[in-house]
Design goal:
The structure is a single chain. With about 260 residues, the protein is of the alpha+beta class. The chain has a single domain, classed as C8orf32 fold (Roll). It is about 35% helix and about 15% strand. It is built from seven helices and eight strands, in the order ααβαβαβββαβββαα. It has a four-stranded antiparallel β-sheet with strand order 5-4-3-8. β4 and β5 form a beta hairpin. α3 packs across α4. It is globular, with a radius of gyration of 17 Å. The mean pLDDT is about 95. This is Transglutaminase. InterPro entries: Papain-like_cys_pep_sf (IPR038765), Transglutaminase-like (IPR002931). It comes from Actibacterium mucosum KCTC 23349.
């Protein structure tokens, strides 16, 4: 595997002290390759809580310091940890339908949200193939709250989840691809060597809306997520239609 999938970058700053200490303290380098992937994946899924940072394009060390993140920022941290462990990985960029974020985004400001929200997952080279890793986004308590609130549902595209198997989503590392927001994807930008290359040309938090998001809206969203984690999942208007993905959203493909 070439160095392009193993090298540090400005965002994948795995040579930073806090990341190196984390890897050393956890003893991850002593594990098999499969278990290294699993250890980094489980750490990002559950010890880095689901939440909204000030920007998508944050260095991995900043995400680690924040202690929370969403698809893009948690993905950056996961990539940095994987590369620190010698595991080749790359970035896959998308957009998702904003309905996937409904319930997390307060209804008062929901109309201001862009129709298509930047999304990404991590692709890891393992066992001679590229695997998609997306199931790390929601921490276990948030996912459990959604499962408990909608015990009869299979498909859900809201509250930060986009899945057709809500009660048993493939989110744990078992050596295969994992997903939790896949059914909300509506555009595929393709793969990139690293998040730096993607964010050089694809940014969303700009202008007045970006300022409002960073200063006010994301804190409001994080408050709602904290309440969800405790079992208080807010109602959203629209009935059944508000909880399922747009039927025109295309299927995504396995990594190749």
């Amino acid at each position: 595997m070439t160095d392009q999938f193993l090298s540090p970058t400005s965002l994948l700053d795995f040579e930073a002290g806090p990341i190196q200490r984390l890897v050393a303290d956890r003893g991850w380098m002593n594990l098999s390759n499969a278990d290294r992937i699993g250890a980094a994946y489980d750490f990002v899924r559950n010890e880095i809580l689901f939440g909204y940072n000030s920007d998508d394009a944050l260095p991995a060390s900043r995400v680690l310091s924040d202690g929370y993140g969403q698809c893009n920022t948690k993905g950056t941290l996961l990539m940095a940890l994987l590369r620190a462990l010698g595991m080749p990985c790359r970035f896959h960029g998308f957009t998702i339908d904003k309905r996937l974020q409904r319930g997390v985004v307060p209804e008062l400001v929901y109309p201001l949200a862009p129709a298509n929200i930047i999304h990404s997952w991590v692709e890891i080279y393992h066992g001679g193939a590229w695997l998609n890793l997306e199931g790390f986004i929601l921490d276990a308590p948030v996912l459990a709250a959604l499962q408990n609130t909608f015990p009869e549902r299979k498909s859900l595209c809201a509250y930060g989840a986009g899945t057709d198997c809500l009660q048993n989503p493939n989110v744990e590392w078992r050596g295969v691809s994992t997903y939790i927001q896949k059914t909300g994807i509506n555009h595929d930008f393709g793969t990139f060597d690293d998040p730096d290359a993607f964010y050089a040309t694809h940014r969303q938090l700009t202008g007045v809306k970006g300022l409002l998001y960073r200063v006010i809206i994301r804190h409001w969203m994080n408050h709602r997520v904290r309440r969800m984690r405790k079992g208080h999942v807010p109602d959203i208007p629209g009935g059944e239609a508000a909880l399922v993905p747009d039927q025109s959203i295309p299927e995504t493909q396995e990594a190749t």
